[in-house]
Write a structure and sequence with these properties.
Length: about 120
C-alpha cells in the first residue's frame, strides 16, 4: 500500500515540475479580447486584458476540467436519483419483511422462531 502512495506522490511531483517548466517557458504577455475587432466595433464592447501565456493555458485547462465535472454531474443525476429511489424501496421492503416475520413468530418460543427463520432463508 505504501508503494502506491509513493507512486502517487512521485506523479504529483512530476506534474508540478512540468507545470512550473511550462509557466517559465511561456511568460510572455498575450492580449485576450472578448470579441474580434470587427464585432467589438459593431457591439461597442471592446474589452481586452494582457496576461502571461501560461495563465491562459492553465486557465483553459482548469475551465475545461470544471466544465467536464459539471457536465458529468448533470448527466449522472438520473442515475443518482434512481439509486436513491431503489435504496428507499429496499429499506421499506426490509421493514415490511421484518414486520411480517415478527407477526408469523408471535407467541412462539424465540429459539424455535429463529430456527424456522433460518430454514426459510435458504
Amino acid at each position: 500500500m505504501k508503494l502506491i502512495r509513493y507512486i502517487k506522490y512521485l506523479f504529483l511531483v512530476l506534474v508540478a515540475i512540468g507545470l512550473v517548466v511550462l509557466a517559465m517557458a511561456n511568460r510572455d504577455p498575450v492580449t485576450l479580447t472578448i470579441l474580434p475587432a470587427e464585432l467589438a466595433l459593431w457591439t461597442g464592447v471592446d474589452y481586452a486584458i494582457e496576461l502571461p501565456l501560461f495563465l491562459v493555458i492553465l486557465g483553459g485547462v482548469v475551465t475545461g476540467v470544471l466544465l467536464g465535472f459539471v457536465w458529468e454531474w448533470l448527466r449522472e443525476h438520473r442515475h443518482r436519483a434512481e439509486a436513491a429511489t431503489n435504496k428507499r424501496e429496499a429499506r421499506k421492503l426490509e421493514r415490511e419483511v421484518k414486520a411480517l416475520k415478527g407477526r408469523d413468530n408471535e407467541g412462539k418460543d424465540e429459539v424455535l422462531a429463529l430456527v424456522e427463520d433460518a430454514g426459510t432463508a435458504r
